[in-house]
Specification:
Layout (H helix, E strand, L loop, with lengths): L1 E4 L6 E4 L3 E3 L2 E3 L5 H7 L7 E7 L5 E7 L7 E7 L1 E8 L10 E7 L5 E4 L3 E7 L4 E7 L8 E3 L21 H4 L12
Antiparallel strand pairs: 1-2, 2-10, 3-4, 5-12, 6-11, 6-13, 7-10, 7-12, 8-9, 8-11
Length: 182
Amino acid sequence: MKFQETALAGAFIIDVTRFEDERGFFVEAWRQDLADQAGIHESFTGTNISSNRYQGTLRGLHAQKEPQAQAKLVRCIQGAILDVIVDIRPDSPTYLQWLSVELSAENLSTLFVPKGFLHGFQTLVDDSTVMYQVSGLYHPQSEIGARFDDPAFQIAWPEADERILSEKDQHWPRFEPLLVHR
């Protein structure tokens, strides 16, 4: 397991070692001792799965504000996604910067998303399944979000014949920094 720092403060790409034989493969998906050595000291208390039927499905951008903020470990276990995070921590040296990472069942990479980041993804192929561990429970009253195409971020999303979004994701407002701290 290899922890690679990204250009965004506190975010990591985690690559695993695949052990293969005639039966298939085995990987260690998470080791807290190695995470601690990399500086990740989160305890993950829940695991969520998002099944996505169609290429071009976009979920996000979401976060929860303090004190309910969540860190996440995001991995694609079927298909492929472009996973996107945006640093919305006002005191961070990478404030309002974004990062995208292709996660797939083939590369088995994981993205560690620290607390204080917006998160979203777009499916790159049909039948993509995302599994993510969270450091806290979902708290609807603490949920915040921003439009995926917010001009404050200028995220380069993949082209899609049809982009599929939920009603909620279609109607997020433009990013308001003050919402994060209310």
